[in-house]
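Job type: complex structure
Entries:
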Amino acid sequence: MADISVRIEEFDVVIVGAGGAGMAAAVQTGMAGLKTAVISEVYPTRSHTVSAQGGINAALANMDEDYWIWHMYDTVKGGDYIGDQDAMEFFTKNAPKTIIELEHWGMPFSRTEKGTAYQRAFGGQTRNFGESIAHRATAVADRSGHAIVHTLFERTLRPDIVQYVSYYSEYYALKLLRNEEGTVMGVVAWDMVNGGVHIFFAYATILASGGNTRNFRTNTNAHVNTGIGWKLCAQAGIPIKDPEFVQFHPTGIYGVGNLITEGVRGEGGYLLNAQGERFMKKYAPHVLDLASRDVVSRGMATEIREGRGVGPKKDHVLLKLDHLGKDFIMDKLPGIWELAYKFVGVDCTKDPIPVQPTAHYHMGGIPTNIHGQVVDWDKDNKEVPIPGLYAAGEVGCGSLHGANRLGCNSLLDLVITGKEAGRHAARWILDEHPTFPNPPEEFVADKYAKDVMDKLNELFDGPEGTVKMDEIWEDLQDTMQADMSVFRIEEGLTRQLARLDEYFEKFKKVGLSDKSKVFNTELCEYFDLENMLYVSKIETVAAYNRKESRGAHYRDDYPERDDANWMLHTAAYWKEDGSVVTEYKPVRQKPLTAPTFQPKKRVY
Ligand SMILES: Cc1cc2nc3c(=O)[nH]c(=O)nc-3n(C[C@H](O)[C@H](O)[C@H](O)COP(=O)(O)OP(=O)(O)OC[C@H]3O[C@@H](n4cnc5c(N)ncnc54)[C@H](O)[C@@H]3O)c2cc1C
């Protein structure tokens, strides 16, 4: 047997993920004096939040009159009416004070002439319930995520907080510890630097492991965004809510997928087809290029499908911004200039940037209530919290974004849900004094981590395998892109489900060629690929089963939204035999205090 060391540590709280959501939670648990472990595959400031560009929404009214209820209306409409309106109210209402708190913690916002934080226009953000465009995305040039990550990281390093918060960077989460009663008691992780299994026992576990669109060929996500959070929950019997809603951001750099922020269009940039036509006027006559992302991506994909794409393959369109002027671009969008120049050699102060829709974000995720507690549903379809488990940030699903997220609502989501999950967990631990049997080491390793140990032994002791990982990896990304992207149809989804079964079969034949335990990146890639296979299967089954078009989920064969039959959340359960079963759960349509926004036809 491979010689695998096992270490066990006890904490009050363990947080999986050190992006914006994980750190926002750690600030709270640290302030409450709770011993907190934050585990992350990468150093905290390298988490994907660092690459967010455009900004963070709040009705601060720094540029023009604005109210949280307008922000809430836009969010409900943007989500195509399937979002949970209590969560949408909670988060839009708390947005202004959250931004001010970040500002007080040192976030270096760009400034207006008056000295207040600068706010730009963004897709789907309006004033007075759709009347005119709102300036609500509060920005640090085009490096807003970078500023948030550093502001939160520094906050956790304050002496009164850091004494309780320990970062475990380069630890790879492998399994949720869940006992027979269903209580979550921590996580099992792999120590990537030294090799060995590390069991983190905790009263509260907060999953903040971010997004997972690496399973698409063209995507904006960081390499670590492969979907560990979904897999941990799927394997622990916890459903994934609304996985079919995958956001394709309109402006990925052609050929590579890296993001060009919607802030470019917010500042006055626009899209052109091969005929030099500003085609968005056909799809969103009122706000054109500032429609919501699903609408713009479908507009672009339609232009390409109908032969008006640019280039020899007619497979992309152009984003023009040179008319904004070099000084403005270098002041407000310097990162965009750099990305376009580095990746496609385009100087965007002179020429348009070639762009195509790129997989960007999951509106769905681990189901939570407004306090970040992970929930399942009882037989009467009532939400029941899973003791000891929370989720925050992109991996969670409140559902703050419904079927389509508006730009700049995600940074807000992760700061607010991270904070709320941390606060709720802290209050629960301090008030309720939860206990769980603290089992001896052998008991833990044998009982709760036995499957992990068996798998690791098999990989380290077993043969190299007859299938190479990249064979499955490459095919998976290509086929997900082909059949699960902006347009979906039964035939393509059936084809993709059959392919996924094949990939799972092939995956059984994958082994490791590198048997070392120290910094074995092949081992992590093995688990990354498994994560992506889980995510792909869960979202494809859900997309196959939802027979309507809503938000980012567009079915060519069911092109209309169907509120009579489909105003329901998907709950996708992973079964022991590897199948995925979907159930349908009520939408929380009643806000906390605001009137319910009733479903209407969505036009921009
Ligand atoms: C290019 C880009 C630009 C964006 N721009 C904006 C914007 O302008 N405005 C906006 O509102 N939103 C934007 N978004 C969306 C937003 O940035 C993300 O949804 C958000 O940052 C996710 O934050 P998070 O804390 O949930 O996860 P992340 O920041 O992704 O952090 C995930 C954490 O989980 C850890 N992790 C992952 N896997 C494992 C594992 N196996 N074991 C241990 N740890 C693990 C990682 O190490 C990391 O610390 C953008 C996204 C992208 C990709």
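Summary: Residues 247-361 form a domain with the Flavocytochrome C3; Chain A, domain 1 fold (CATH 3.90.700.10). The two ends are 62 Å apart (CA to CA).
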